[in-house]
């Protein structure tokens, strides 16, 4: 079913929501006075649609860098007569006091505010307007919501130094929140009296006090008949806490887990404590004791363990206290404890670090609120993907994608997550992945590259992109991926390995794509960036992969793209070409790439006069004799000269070398090539070659063009015969055979 979910198209609802949010003005809204969004007066939307609009909006602002947030977005939902909200999830800096204020007339049932650090005590007052309807509320990580600004007033100087002082609000309580059942106060700021805050609530069903230190939790017993879920993550417990928890007999979910790295805990778990829970909390279906140190051995000696199939039957449990359970737990959190490695664990789902299943359960359980734990779990997944084979690939990928999206600004998660993605997308897993899933991977990778200039993240992201078919799989983000790579290559201080991968990606991206793509990338500064890299390498006197890839990328991006050819000349490309030839006379691959590029420049009639200097023509003529890379360098040099010759004797504006002398050397070169040569070149179109056929001004150019076609169609007939026919080459060859000016051997070859 997971595979189906990954493959199935988005629902119509999701597609419409996404479209409306990206085109608010063209769909639901108009702009008032060119700045404020207003809802069209004839629009009435129920909560099913409005909730989705708000929740998706928050998601888009968070995860899509191209999406522009709107100042006045939340005001669209200010009037319940036209737009109804019921269940909304807001997160991080996206939401401010005025946004909540804008929707205060709504009858909200569920309001999750996660890590909304910009909310202040003004929003506490707004919460009161939802008090009569609110059932679920989360203020997790809203660290400033109990602070209000106090203006000291009076003293001018003090006002300048410290215009507002933050003061803790002490008098707010949940008085009047008569329907509130589910409450998350995780990471609540110190100094707020939790007991006073909660006392007015009549019947709490779920309470999360993650990361709050309370020495006395006796007040929890006032909900002993209603509390079914209690989370005390990272609270330092004591015997008193344990006695209170044991009285909450209705509990179905108890989480007393902790992050064993975060600080020193005095409390140690014992067999007696676990026995107490099992005896008293008879409804328990989910228990999390991750990160705890066991003070004594709770495991059954392995002699007593019946071998064979692992069992989840409590009677066979390897963890002694859990033999008293009436039935297996739905979930048992044992991450970073020694217990997760035992054989028989009486639970359907276990989080731990023993195997892939346990690790994935941990990532799933802790991603939303515990990035510090999640990053360590993803690190374990990384090892599994790298060393063994992942058996739950789709689940693993989805979980890592979710974690990377959810914690875009958490460095640890970005580093471990991007590394795991590299191994999870490599070729052996390719078959199992849908287009939709692979696109999601690309999106989070690009998000990571955008948010993090950090070397490890950048390298991991670039390496992961190498696992995709380029350019096809990156087409849908073409501009963005090019901008990000050029950005990496334009940084003044560069990591060698990233530079190499980024240049390789740039080269692949401009290979075999449409000309409008090449023009767009050229306008982004691609040509300039490559030339700068070449310049740097020249200065260091190194000809490495970066140097060769940079010339190769220029060869690709100038193919049938005159604007980019012109840029190459304007940015002193020819000067670099001559310097590279001189500095690296033996580098065959380099010579081939450089001449391939000059072949593209020579195809542009308006630019050819710039190649017409004694120095350049001499260099091209000398390269006719080159044996570098088989015939490629000689072939490309001859191609450049063939286009120059095609302009006729009157265009030959130099005294040395003589035109006839160069023509003679061209004939000699072509005659020396083996007609059956395997080729290191890839033509998308024959147009630049075919235009040299119907002319009598330069028989040698005609001969070079005919040789090129003959070689390609005879060595690679399946690829090039259809291309020759499609582009109208046959009639051109037939006409040429009848021409008086054409050489006999050219006609033979044409025939």
Automatic annotation (TrEMBL):
Among SUPFAM superfamilies, the record links this protein to:
ARM repeat, RNI-like
List each copy of the Zer-1-like leucine-rich repeats region domain by range.
Answer: 196-337
The answer to whether keyword Metal-binding applies is no
| Residue ranges annotated for the Protein zer-1 homolog-like C-terminal domain, each copy included | 404-750
Top-rank taxon, per record: Eukaryota
Keyword tags: Acetylation, Leucine-rich repeat, Repeat, Ubl conjugation pathway
Q: Name one GO cellular component term.
A: Cul2-RING ubiquitin ligase complex
Cite the InterPro entries for this sequence.
ARM-like (IPR011989), ARM-type_fold (IPR016024), Armadillo (IPR000225), LRR_dom_sf (IPR032675), LRR_Zer-1 (IPR056845), ZER1-like_C (IPR055142), Zyg-11_UBL_adapter (IPR051341)
Subunit comment: Interacts with the ELOC-ELOB/Elongin BC complex. Part of an E3 ubiquitin ligase complex including ZER1, CUL2 and Elongin BC.
What is the similarity comment for this entry?
Belongs to the zyg-11 family.
Checking PANTHER family in the record gives: PROTEIN ZER-1 HOMOLOG, PTHR12904
Instruction: Please give the name of this protein.
Output: Protein zer-1 homolog
Species annotation: Chaetorhynchus papuensis (pygmy drongo)
* Gene label: Zer1
């Amino acid at each position: 079913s997971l595979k189906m979910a990954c493959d199935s198209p988005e629902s119509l609802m999701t597609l419409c929501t996404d479209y409306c949010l990206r085109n608010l003005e063209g769909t639901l809204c108009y702009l008032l006075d060119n700045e404020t969004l207003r809802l069209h007066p004839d629009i009435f939307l129920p909560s099913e649609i409005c909730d989705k609009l708000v929740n998706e909006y928050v998601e888009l602002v968070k995860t899509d860098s191209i999406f522009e947030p709107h100042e006045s977005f939340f005001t669209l939902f200010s009037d319940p007569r036209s737009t109804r909200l019921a269940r909304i999830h807001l997160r991080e800096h996206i939401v401010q006091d005025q946004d909540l204020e804008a929707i205060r007339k709504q009858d909200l049932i569920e309001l999750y505010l996660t890590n909304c650090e910009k909310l202040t005590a003004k929003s506490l007052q707004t919460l009161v307007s939802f008090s009569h309807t609110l059932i679920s509320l989360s203020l997790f990580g809203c660290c400033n919501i109990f602070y209000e600004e106090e203006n000291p007033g009076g003293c001018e100087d003090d006002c300048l130094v410290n215009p507002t002082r933050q003061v803790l609000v002490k008098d707010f309580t949940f008085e009047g929140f008569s329907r509130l059942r589910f409450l998350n106060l995780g990471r609540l700021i110190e100094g707020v009296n939790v007991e006073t805050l909660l006392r007015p609530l009549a019947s709490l069903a779920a309470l999360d006090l993650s990361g709050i230190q309370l020495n006395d939790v006796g007040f929890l017993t006032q909900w002993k008949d209603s509390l079914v879920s209690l989370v005390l993550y990272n609270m330092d417990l004591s015997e008193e806490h344990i006695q209170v928890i044991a009285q909450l007999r209705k509990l179905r979910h108890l989480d007393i887990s902790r992050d064993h790295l975060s600080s020193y805990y005095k409390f140690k778990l014992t067999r007696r404590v676990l026995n107490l829970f099992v005896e008293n909390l008879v409804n328990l279906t989910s228990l999390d004791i991750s990160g705890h140190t066991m003070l004594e051995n709770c495991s059954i000696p392995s002699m007593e363990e019946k071998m064979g199939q692992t069992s989840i039957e409590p009677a066979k449990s390897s963890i002694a206290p859990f033999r008293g359970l009436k039935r297996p737990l739905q979930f048992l959190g044992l991450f970073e404890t020694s217990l997760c490695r035992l054989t028989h664990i009486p639970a359907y789902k276990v989080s731990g670090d023993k195997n892939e299943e346990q690790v994935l359960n941990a990532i799933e359980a802790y991603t939303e609120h515990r990035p510090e734990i999640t990053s360590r779990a993803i690190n374990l997944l990384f090892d599994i993907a790298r060393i063994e084979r992942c058996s739950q690939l789709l689940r693993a990928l989805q979980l890592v994608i979710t974690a990377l999206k959810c914690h875009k600004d958490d460095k640890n998660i970005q580093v471990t997550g991007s590394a795991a993605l590299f191994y999870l997308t490599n070729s052996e897993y390719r078959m199992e992945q849908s287009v939709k899933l692979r696109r999601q991977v690309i999106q989070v990778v690009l998000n990571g590259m955008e948010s993090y200039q950090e070397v490890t993240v950048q390298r991991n992201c670039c390496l992961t992109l190498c696992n995709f078919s380029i350019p096809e799989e990156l087409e849908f983000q073409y501009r963005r991926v090019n901008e990000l790579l050029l950005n990496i290559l334009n940084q003044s201080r560069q990591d060698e390995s990233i530079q190499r991968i980024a240049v390789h990606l740039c080269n692949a991206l401009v290979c075999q794509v449409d000309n409008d793509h090449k023009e767009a990338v050229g306008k982004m500064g691609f040509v300039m960036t490559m030339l700068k890299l070449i310049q740097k390498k020249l200065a260091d006197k190194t000809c490495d992969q970066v140097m060769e890839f940079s010339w190769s990328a220029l060869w690709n991006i100038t193919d049938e793209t005159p604007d980019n050819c012109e840029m190459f000349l304007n940015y002193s490309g020819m000067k670099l070409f001559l310097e590279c030839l001189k500095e690296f006379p033996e580098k065959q691959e380099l010579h081939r790439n450089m001449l391939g590029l000059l072949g593209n420049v020579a195809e542009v009639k308006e630019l050819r006069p710039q190649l017409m200097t004694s120095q350049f023509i001499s260099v091209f003529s000398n390269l006719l004799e080159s044996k570098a890379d088989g015939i490629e360098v000689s072939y490309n040099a001859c191609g450049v000269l063939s286009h120059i010759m095609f302009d006729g004797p009157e265009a030959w504006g130099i005294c040395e070398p003589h035109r006839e002398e160069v023509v003679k050397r061209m004939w000699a070169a072509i005659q020396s090539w083996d007609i059956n040569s395997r080729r290191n070149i890839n033509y998308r179109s024959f147009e630049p070659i075919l235009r040299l056929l119907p002319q009598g001004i330069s028989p040698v150019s005609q001969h070079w063009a005919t040789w090129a076609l003959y070689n390609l169609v005879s060595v690679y007939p399946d690829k090039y015969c259809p291309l020759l026919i499609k582009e109208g080459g046959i009639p051109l060859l037939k006409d040429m055979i009848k021409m008086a000016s054409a050489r006999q051997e050219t006609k033979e070859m044409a025939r």
